[in-house]
Amino acid sequence: MPSLTINGSATNFDVPDDMPLLWVLRDVAGLTGTKFGCGVSLCGACTIHLDGEAVRSCVTPVSSAVGKKIVTIEAVGLDPVGARVQDAWRQVDVVQCGYCQSGQVMSATALLTKTPKPSDADIDTAMAGNICRCGTYNRIRAAIKIAAATPGTPS
Amino acid sequence: MRLADTTPLTSRRRFLQVGAATGGGLLIGFSLFGCEQKKPADRKTPPSEKAVGAAATAETNRAPGLAPNAFIRIDRDGLVTLIMHKVEMGQGTFTSMPMLLAEELGVDLAKVRLEQAPADNNLYSDPMLGGQVTGGSTSVRGAWKPLREAGAAARSVLVSAAAQTWQVDASTLTAANGAVTHAATGRTLGYGELVDAAAKLPAPKNVKLKDAAAFTLIGKAHKRLDSPDKTNGKALFGIDARLPNMGIATVAASPVAGGKLASADEAKAMAVKGVRQVLKIDGAVAVVADHMWAAKQGLAALAPTWDDGPNKAMASGALVADMMAASKKPGAVAQNKGDAIKSLGQAGRKLDAVYELPYLAHATMEPMNCTVDLRADGCDLWVGTQVPSLAQGATAKLTGLPLEKVKVHNFYLGGGFGRRLEVDYVTQAVSFAKLMKGPVKFIWTREEDIQHDMYRPYYVDRLSARLDAKGMPAAWFHRVTGSSIMARFAPAAMKDGVDPDAVEGARELQYTIPDMRVEYVRHESPVATAFWRGVGPTHNVFVVESFVDELAFAARQDPLAYRRQLSAKSPRLLRVLNLAAEKSGWGQPLKPIAGRRVGRGVSAQFAFGSFMAQVAEVSVGADGEVRVHRVVCALDCGQVVNPDTVVAQMEGGIVFGLTAALWGQVTFDKGRVQQSNFGDYRMMRINEAPKVEVHIVASTDEPGGIGEPGTAAISPAVTNAVFAATGKRIRKLPIDQAALKKA
Ligand code: FES
Ligand code: FES
Asked: Where are the alpha helices (DSSP H) in B129-182?
């Protein structure tokens, strides 16, 4: 029975070891902010943080998350970088249908945590795994730049 | 909520009612058809069987929709609630609709709350679409007058209530920011304090709408109201529905349309931990489990095999060959101006071309899903749909329940694009639910979603033109061949064999051409087809704007100048063409890119009530790879409600159209769809997305649609740019990039 630390609290889950985190989060823990888009690591809708690293939860078995810190969209705002990203997203009004945006915010937060002043090429590399079918890419780029320019970003 | 003590408006039609809301407050009931627009045929008539499958025709059997059919409630604390008849799928209606109301009512936007309207085709029918439908870029266009009129009427009774209270003349009062003020004495009453008095007043006989110059909200950029919840995980989509002890199921339908289940290893599926039940209906199976992982594993263990049935040999090559043959026969006449056939036979340069567009899947980011709780006494659906009342009607028909026992709980849509105008995934879920007890969420995998979509039709277009001595088209012939969505979805719209959607953007051109003939050949195959973002124009604008480019080249004229000449009688099109030319730097050389061929292309269109011109800058690598660097979009969509939403819809629509132009196609072999996920049904990504610049013409004309035009205009702008860069004319989408390899 794997024990997982999700958004700061530890819980035991009665699920198979090979079950992808995505479904543990959505169907067992009831955290539906993390989305299912493709199931095979092609779209980024399911992006979460595992020890601060952006990973695709649809292909991350629970067993590999044991002992690590899992952060989802529901709690990323508690992180100062995450909060800045969310603010920037709202300033620019990035969202349309919104379905991909949990994943976008998670990927952008991981990028800015590692690379506080990303170049366009850095943004391309970090965000190319996140599809937005509504085509909000121009605004995602703008919002990342605003978040990067907001004072307080650790450098 | 219930209308009490209503006082119908006596003029012309019963447009507006004023009454007390249950529990206190003011209730305004009004007609979405406004006080001047005529109401189309009442909604007693059910939608046709073919529109949504036989299941849907249990449609509404209650009294036809008398006014009112929409509601605004103002509480004692001044909060305004608008019962929202449209769904939000990214297009920003949940922000623009409250803006229309708040503008005339005189309240801060923050004071307006939205409540999603229940499924009810009688009450919430769209004035342009004739049903409870969100689509066709109609939301703002349809609500533009009625919502503002209702806001103005509400303001008028609140002002009258204040005038009565203070015993002053109403004309000495002003209303703004949610309060009525008597400037002479400095007295002010908030709307909340006036609602009970206002509820007793008769509805105003006339309402006067603000002049555009006096708008304080409309036309000003406003932040989307759904932005916070869509960035913190709180926004709920259909797929997020959760009910106690709910089962989660995943589905496999026969990979070949019309196929039947041949075998399935039920025991093996049931042996998977967490699997609860295996469900079989005609042509599909589902595995219900505690969670999606068990359901997926259960389905893998079930290993269904199929008897492919009559369509087992279906393949793209033969499908297209059939369509090509059909396109050679005369079609139904959609347009006949002058005598194009005769004129084509006269002296002058003649051009002929055949264009082709592929089947396309919608690939909404949120895969199809539907949660059902079917009981003996009723049924609840939790779903994201563009057509709540069709989902309700289809469920009633399938279950035998009376319509009012079927409740549709609509959610945010993780993309619509026309896919969620169909209720196939709802009827499938309800059919499965009939075989079991308790609530279940049915989720399609991405593979299921792509392989069991209803596709944008394949089209074959034949064009001919003759140029006059000056190089301008004297005669124009265009024959469209393809499946008719309208004939299934809204058969009443078919006229003399012409599908108005299939020829939209081809039938009426803004260009002046003396002799013109447009024909339509309906050609069906076993492939199910449906509306796709940009509908008719997405196909026709590509064809028309490419062919016009061919004519300009044959006439040795600059493609933009050529379009200007053709648009001489359309001042609004001319204006966007000029604006796009100016902002894009048309005519100035493009910056060279080492190892790549660069080019610029233009397109122009009038569609969904909006005028648009786009200029695309592309480069083509030695290997043929096409990159789009910059798109300049000039738009006249009449009066803009929320300019930032308009810009966002252009940006998004352009990416949607580009994705299709560069990579989009669904193909068939052995009856099966050959694509399955984003690996082989490619989506544009951030590193491939061009810079999009949107320029909006200031206008107070009636609002035009904005959700779809951007998608339609981009593909010809890009293919014309590819021609400028390489000299290769693209007559088939998606662009065959390998063929652009440098020799
Ligand atoms: S759902 Fe995980 S990457 Fe698409
Ligand atoms: S906002 Fe709709 S998919 Fe990105």
From this structure: 139-166
Whole-number Å distance between alpha carbons of B157 and B462: 59
A9 and A61 share one domain: yes
Q: Which residue has the tokens 């059939």?
A: B322
| pLDDT computed for residue B341 by the predictor | 97
How large is the angle between the packed helices A80-92 and A101-114, nearest 10 degrees? Answer: 130
| Residues A35 and A56 both lie in one domain | yes
Give tens-digit pLDDT for B450-489. Answer: 999 999 999 999 999 999 999 999 999 999 999 999 999 8
pLDDT per residue over B153-205, tens digit each? 899 999 999 999 999 999 999 999 999 999 999 999 999 999 999 999 988 88
DSSP notation for B45-73: SPPPHHHH-GGGGG---S---PSP-EEEE
> In this complex, is the C-beta atom of A32 within 8 Å of any C-beta atom belonging to chain B?
yes
**ipTM of the complex as predicted:** 0.97
Q: How is B628-695 classified by DSSP, letter by letter?
A: EEEEEEEEE-SS-S-HHHHHHHHHHHHHHHHHHHHH--B-EETTEES--STTTS----GGGPPEEEEE
Q: In chain B, which residues have their Cβ closer than 8 Å to the Cβ of A42?
A: 677-679
Residue to mutate, A21, A23, A38, A72, ligand 1, most ligand atoms under 8 Å from C-beta: A38
Q: With beta carbons under 8 A apart, name residues in chain B contacting A137.
A: 651, 655, 684-686, 689
B390 vs B124: which has the higher pLDDT:
B390
A40 in B contact zone (CB under 8 Å): yes
**DSSP, res B403:** G
Q: Are strands B305-307 and A9-12 parallel, antiparallel or unpaired?
A: unpaired
Would you say the CB of residue A58 lies under 6 angstroms from ligand 1? yes
The band of B32, judged by pLDDT with boundaries at 50, 70 and 90, is low
B194 Cβ partners below 8 Å, 6+ apart? B26, B158, B161, B162, B165, B180
Lay out the sheet containing B70-74: strands in order across. Answer: B16-20, B26-30, B70-74, B80-84, B112-116
For ligand 1, the distance from its centroid to the CA atom of residue B444, given in whole angstroms, is: 14
Percentage helix, strand, coil, to 5, in chain A?
Answer: 45, 15, 45
Q: Is the CB of B415 inside a 6 Å radius of any atom of ligand 2?
A: yes
Three-class DSSP category at B537: helix
User: Do A90 and A137 reside in the same domain of the chain?
Assistant: yes
Residue B122 clears pLDDT 80, i.e. is over it:
no
Å from CA of A55 to ligand 1 middle: 10
pLDDT mean over B302-324 = 97
Going by pLDDT thresholds of 50, 70 and 90, the confidence category of residue B136 is: low
Same domain, A93 and A65: no
pLDDT at position B517 is: 98
Residue A66 shares a structural domain with residue A83: no
Q: How many CB atoms are located within 10 Å of the residue B1 CB?
A: 13
The pick from A21, A23, A46, A48 for probing ligand 1's pocket by mutation, whose C-beta has the most ligand atoms within 8 angstroms, reads: A46
CATH of B319-358+456-740, one of 3.30.365.10, 3.30.420.40, 3.30.420.10, 3.40.630.10: 3.30.365.10
A154 found inside a domain:
no
Q: Which of B227, B365, B447, B711 to mutate to test the interface with A (most CBs of A within 10 A)?
A: B365
Q: Is the CB of A55 under 6 A from ligand 1?
A: no
The answer to whether A61 contacts chain B (CB < 8 Å) is no
Task: Locate B560 and state its tokens.
Answer: 């933009």
